[in-house]
Amino acid sequence: MKLAVDAMGGDNAPESIINGCKLALETYSDLEIILIGKENEIKKFIDPSDRVKILHTDVVIEGEDSPVKAVRRKKDSSMVLSVQQVKEGKADSAISAGNTGALMTAGLLGVGRIKGIERPALSPMLPTLGGEGFLLLDVGANMEAKASHLYQYALMGSIYMQKVRKVKQPRIGLLNVGSEPGKGTELSKEVYTLLSESSLNFVGNVEARDLLEGVADVVVCDGFSGNLVLKSIEGTALSLFTILKKELTSSLKNKLAAGILKPAFKQVKLKMDYSEYGGAGLFGLDAPIIKAHGSSDDRGFFSAIKQAHTMHEENVVETIRKELEINEEGKE
């Protein structure tokens, strides 16, 4: 697998980006990486080799840049060139921890959408208490959405969970302010009707407080609501770890107890730490494009690469494309 990496995107670029790539190169013997960015900065952390290429550019899309303007005006930026490598067939997948909107725009203008998909969705796997996890679509690719968009999110999510995660009948939930039918906005009500009348395994409205309990395998919502949920889960997990660390080091007795319970706490962290769940795939694009978390550390970026590797190995894009074609044929 050949992976194009925006080495300059994210809060901790390029060091954490490259360290994550090193972990991935050690883990996947079939992996080749093209690092795109400022060559002198990249070479501080890694040297070119048979499996590592460097494509130099001084141009970087910043977090505060307007997505569409940035992509069109900075065509030689590290992010745009990463997607371009995929478009030209020089890489199988691209990954960036940079500006989310810009990556979506670059993906749309570069590799385009899967036929039949109106809007791609930013879709991370998030933890559940049982360890299975759930797929959340959308968490910020589209702040406003139509009912047809959310229906397509559900369809893509169901295909992914069934074909890749091997869930026989993925449970589809619609994020809402209550579980009862008829709750929520006009958009929610319209989507509820669409999903109820579909062949998908729709379990109804689900509330944010129940997500980590594993109430559904796929949860759909507009990007604004999804981003709020994502950031709330991340913030709560980080705050919980901070509180635990403070309390467990506050006295000798607590330190002794912490030493005994360390393996258990490590497992809790693995279950709840978003960095262990990798990046978010831009589902609906015609090639695997992965958005890593903006504040990714070494491990977080490695987990995002793992997501890209899985999407490539499992032919996720091709699987979604074929299943959508079968679904459309079934309607005719």
UniProtKB/TrEMBL annotation:
Pathway given for this chain reads: Lipid metabolism; phospholipid metabolism
Q: Which GO terms describe its biological process?
A: fatty acid biosynthetic process; phospholipid biosynthetic process
Citing just one GO molecular function, the answer is: phosphate:acyl-[acyl carrier protein] acyltransferase activity
Per the record, its GO cellular-component terms are: cytoplasm
- Where does this polypeptide localize? Cytoplasm
Q: Which InterPro entries match?
A: FA_synthesis, Phospholipid_synth_PlsX-like
User: Would the keyword Nucleus be found if you checked this record's keyword annotation?
Assistant: no
Q: How does it assemble?
A: Homodimer. Probably interacts with PlsY.
The record's section on NCBIfam families has: plsX
Alphabetical list of PANTHER family matching this protein:
FATTY ACID/PHOSPHOLIPID SYNTHESIS PROTEIN PLSX, PHOSPHATE ACYLTRANSFERASE
Please state which protein family the record places this protein in: Belongs to the PlsX family.
Protein function? Catalyzes the reversible formation of acyl-phosphate (acyl-PO(4)) from acyl-[acyl-carrier-protein] (acyl-ACP). This enzyme utilizes acyl-ACP as fatty acyl donor, but not acyl-CoA.
Can you name this protein? Answer: Phosphate acyltransferase
Q: Which organism is it from?
A: Evansella cellulosilytica (strain ATCC 21833 / DSM 2522 / FERM P-1141 / JCM 9156 / N-4)
The root-end lineage is:
Bacteria, Bacillati, Bacillota, Bacilli, Bacillales
